[in-house]
Specification:
Elements (H helix, E strand, L loop, with lengths): L3 H13 L2 H7 L7 H10 L1 H18 L3 H14 L3 H14 L15 H18 L1
Amino acid sequence: MLTRKKQQFIDNYILTLNATKSAELAHYSPKTAYSQGSRLLKDVDVSKQITSRLKEIQERNSITRDSVLENLWKEVNHAQRSADRISALVAVAKINNYIKDNNIQQTVVNINDVISDLRSPIDTQASSA
């Protein structure tokens, strides 16, 4: 049986996918939220429940990483406003772990790597069609 705080952490993690923020929202001390979040993600019971719930959400919504990337890539190529194209490209970079923790200032993103990673599965799908 999970404690109330652990359950709150799980509920918040499902929404934010950010362990530190989730720990804070679950009323862990802001001073220790980073280490608590990390510790909680390693907790077997917490990890199992997070994995199970994320899988359930994915199945219910038929969301796959590839479908998200494909739709974002369409936005990158076809958006009318450059701000929308940039937002989509930033989302792609985050999904591919080129940008971590929304800290774009301290992260160097090689856009060519992002584009190359995206084109690989799309080019493969197009050539097989």
